[in-house]
Design goal:
The structure is a single chain. The chain is an alpha+beta fold. The chain is globular and about 75 Å long. Bound molecules: biotin (BTN).
Length: 324
């Protein structure tokens, strides 16, 4: 886990506007020599930031950045909240905190070992997207887990649709999609034992403004919020909206269960009524997607019969993309 030192933090906040800043201007601001500014630029580049320098003009970022504002996050979301510049995975950092208060959250500007579902990597370049993990404890163990993972997807999709405009949909169980492209994903992990209260880490990754270099590492069709809504996105405000909605929705889920979210999930389902293929390593099933039920089962209609399918390591694809 790393935090930028205050001088580098200040340098980066100057560069965040995407304009040129001369070494002289930056040096004066921080009372540092131009040589030490240049050394600090090299440190920022090591975080993966695309900073270039032009003689006579100074330094600039390839594109503007919306940095996470720790004071505003804490003011709007309260504590415990931890913001790091660089972590391996926010899920692991939160796990290491042990049992904390419901809704406690770890955010990072970048992850060096971001994890996705089913063993995938999660590409997590500095300052580009949203990466955070939220803690929640459930009394009832494994059975409720499937429901919680569906509710997390509904909460994130609703938060984005309400604040930026309707557009985001869900792919079972909780991938965030827009027009057949992945916008974000949720990795739910259990800590502790199965009987009795279970500690849950809900890791959320949302693409905000994908840098070109990072896009080359993503192995599936992707999109980001900047493209969908055609506007610059304030990442701090987005984090506040999404985390507040998650906390509200998980509180409602703890009181009322999944039933309170089934209609929302089915409305947001990007494959409802469409032919899909459900796969695990051994087998695959084809059918028409009929959404979810209040116990979290996915309904798959085939040959006039509806089967109920429960979580696990299944992946869903549209029938067209799986066969085409
Ligand atoms: C998926 O495969 O769809 C799930 C992606 C989850 C990524 C997020 S980013 C924050 C948290 N930390 C991780 O290492 N993974 C999750």
């Amino acid at each position: 886990m790393k935090k930028l030192d205050p001088a580098n933090q200040l340098l980066l906040s100057q560069l965040a506007d995407g304009r040129f800043h001369s070494g002289e201007e930056l040096g004066e601001m921080l009372s540092l020599s131009r040589a030490s500014i240049s050394k600090r630029m090299a440190e920022l580049r090591r975080l993966g930031l695309d900073i270039f320098s032009v003689k006579g003009k100074g330094y600039r970022l390839a594109s503007p950045l919306s940095l996470l504002d720790e004071a505003k996050l804490k003011e709007s979301l309260g504590e415990p909240l931890w913001l790091w510049s660089e972590v391996g995975s926010t899920n692991d950092v939160l796990k290491a905190e042990g049992a904390v208060q419901n809704g406690a959250v770890v955010l990072a500007e970048c992850q060096t070992a971001g994890r996705g579902r089913r063993g995938h990597n999660w590409v997590s370049p500095f300052g580009a997207h949203l990466y955070f993990s939220l803690f929640w404890q459930l009394d009832s163990g494994h059975a409720a887990l499937q429901g919680l993972s569906l509710v997390a997807g509904v909460a994130v999709a609703n938060a984005i649709n309400d604040s930026l405009g309707d557009g985001v949909r869900l792919k079972w169980p909780n991938d965030l999609y827009h027009n057949g492209r992945k916008l974000g994903g949720i990795l739910v992990e259990l800590v502790g034992q199965a009987n009795g209260p279970v500690n849950i880490i809900i890791g959320v990754g949302l693409n905000v403004a994908m840098p070109m270099e990072a896009a080359r590492q993503v192995d599936q069709p992707w999109t980001d919020l900047q493209q969908i809504y055609n506007q610059p996105i304030d990442r701090t405000q987005l984090a506040v909206d999404v985390i507040s909605r998650l906390r509200q929705s998980l509180t409602l889920f703890s009181e009322k269960g999944l039933a309170a979210f089934v209609d929302d999930w089915n409305r947001l389902d990007c494959f409802w009524g469409q032919a899909v293929v459900l796969k695990n390593e051994q087998s695959q099933q084809v059918g028409i997607c009929r959404g979810i039920e209040s116990d979290g089962a996915l309904l798959l209609e085939a040959g006039g019969k509806v089967s109920r399918i429960y979580g696990g390591e299944l992946s869903m694809r549209s029938y067209d993309s799986a066969t085409g």
